[in-house]
Amino acid sequence: MKREDGAAYAAGLLRRKHAALLSGGEDRLPHRSDFTAEEVVLIKAHLGPFPRALEAAGLKPPRDDGYAERRLQKRIAAKRRRTRAKLARQKSETKP
Q: Is the pLDDT of residue 95 over 80?
């Protein structure tokens, strides 16, 4: 099975399960527990982690693209705080 075929099959599994849940009266996205272990392995192998797989199948909106930028800014701010604290410690240790 080619990668594209497997991804299409995995996305189809997710969409069919979602349709079955909706027709059964449940208004929710499929969970891992709704699938057999083999199906979960196939889905994750072709589409990645389960939340990303739901996005790839078109069942869930893609996560916020600003996530990586916010994480980067948070790391920069933390580094600046550590540097300021280190400089303050060095300055207080050198004062007589």
A: no
